[in-house]
Design brief:
By secondary structure, the protein is mainly α. The chain contains 10 helices and no strands.
Length: about 220
């Protein structure tokens, strides 16, 4: 009976369409790279629109010289409009890593407590996607910003639990699990160095790695 219970709670990998897996993995890699680069341009545009952010010495150390060097990319319009426009990049970036996470979820076929943790995490990603849509594509920025904070809180706590379970159950690549665990402490470090949008960077790269793993396993 005990053996049957343990076996029933053990994830079983499921076959996925190779072409779909490869497409999602490729998009995840591309948008992770775009988010890493464009996200810092977004951070600079925020610093231009909100100079008080430069009170952080870690941000000011690189943002001030970068703002001078990249002035044409920041001074083409009203600072708030430039910041809001560059912020639109986060929605497709978020959609790409959410698709990668869903791919990993379907390929893994989790059961039991692990499945619950996956669903909580994916639900928080959907909430984050809604937040980014409202934040940068509607006039109700402040309200959707609060939605994003709730999503980040759930992602942080839920990611720690899910990451630990994935490590204990032999999930590969292990880097993805570690990046899930590191999201919450990384949130506070990243926001001292760059804009809040960049807190998605660990998720972007972690799920790109996971999607790549699924794509390679599913290849004919």
């Amino acid at each position: 009976m005990i053996t049957d219970t343990i076996t029933a709670e053990r994830p079983a990998t499921r076959p996925v369409a190779p072409r779909r897996a490869r497409l999602i993995a490729t998009l995840a890699w591309v948008f992770a790279a775009i988010g890493t680069v464009a996200g810092q341009l977004h951070a600079l545009s925020r610093a231009a629109a909100h100079p008080e952010d430069l009170a952080s010495p870690l941000l000011a150390a690189w943002a001030v010289p970068a703002m001078d060097a990249l002035r044409p990319l920041l001074a083409w319009g009203d600072p708030n409009f430039v910041y809001w426009t560059y912020g639109k990049i986060w929605l497709p970036v978020c959609l790409a890593f959410v698709a990668a996470a869903v791919l990993a979820f379907r390929a893994r076929g989790p059961v039991g407590a692990e499945r619950v943790l996956w669903i909580v995490q994916l639900g928080a990603y959907v909430l984050l996607t809604i937040s980014l849509t409202g934040d940068y594509y509607t006039p109700w920025t402040d309200a959707f910003f609060l939605v994003g904070l709730v999503a980040a809180f759930v992602i942080g706590l839920g990611g720690i639990a899910l990451g630990i379970v994935l490590l204990r159950r032999g999930f590969r690549p292990r880097t993805t699990a570690w990046l899930l665990i590191a999201f919450l402490p990384g949130f506070f470090v990243i926001t001292e160095v760059t804009s809040m949008g960049s807190v998605m960077l660990p998720l972007m790269w972690g799920w790109a790695l996971a999607a790549e793993s699924v794509a390679r396993r599913s290849a004919p």
